[in-house]
Amino acid sequence: MKTKSFFYSILLAVLLSSCSSYKKIPYFQNIDRSKPSREVISNYSPVTIQPGDILGISVSSLNPEASAVFNYNLNTVTGLNYAVQNNPVLGYLVDQQGNIQLPLIGDMKVSGIPVSEARKQIQTKLLTYLKEPVVNIRMLNFKVSVIGDVLRPGVYEVQNEKITLPEAIGLAGDLNITALRENVMLIREQDGNRQYIPIDLTSKDLFNSPWYYLKNNDVIYIQPGRTKYATVDRSYRSLSLVLSALSIVAIVLTRNY
Questions:
Q1: pTM for this prediction
Q2: Which residues pair with 194 in a beta bridge?
Q3: Which domains are delineated in the chain?
Q4: Tell me: the pLDDT tens digits for 189-224?
Q5: Maximum Cα interatomic distance, the chain, rounded to a whole number of Å
Q6: Residue 143 to residues 15, 221, 224: CA-CA distances in angstroms?
Q7: What share of the chain is helix, strand, coil (3-state, %, to 5)?
């Protein structure tokens, strides 16, 4: 009877431990899932241009020959212009003073403003030289990095001007089951400063957080849990034991011959 009671106690402890661990797995746990809900988005702000960004600028107008100077393609870096090979859109590198150098216009300050505002300013300046100019701008080197305990860690290019933290994690194939969801680390460099921001993916508060929308060159680090370490450690130990046993067998066989 004592043996059976002990067995049930162990089984109950394992079940309770499993339930406790599962509670840490789901994302956004404090969302009311019993009914549809809605909230106003108040934490989004457009990505602002920073030194080191590369802007793809294309210009069209009623004077195609005049606007063509903005759209020629290079295969090498020339001055402040960064050319993207096999890309019809020329990239302009934002220097450390926050300027780009445009034909006809010259140096122009663009750092600290959204891409949409830079487009308007360039279009206004071009009215002096072009008839009804149309300017399109895209950030060519917008990327985020996702590293740590995810399916596909790596650096991911962003085609749009907006990406959220959950979207970036989705690009990396989602967190592994062993990852810590309550202590994700966002690393951001901006205006000469580096920030380390802890984020809890189990809370819906992330949706209203200033860190929900990512910026260029953000790094997301997913820390593995102790379970991950224990599993890997056991695998290495088992492999080491197997290799040791094989070595002993090989030595014995060699001596017998």
A1: 0.71
A2: 189
A3: 54-139 (3.30.1950.10), 143-224 (3.10.560.10)
A4: 987 889 999 999 999 999 999 999 999 999 999 999
A5: 96
A6: 43, 15, 23
A7: 30, 25, 45
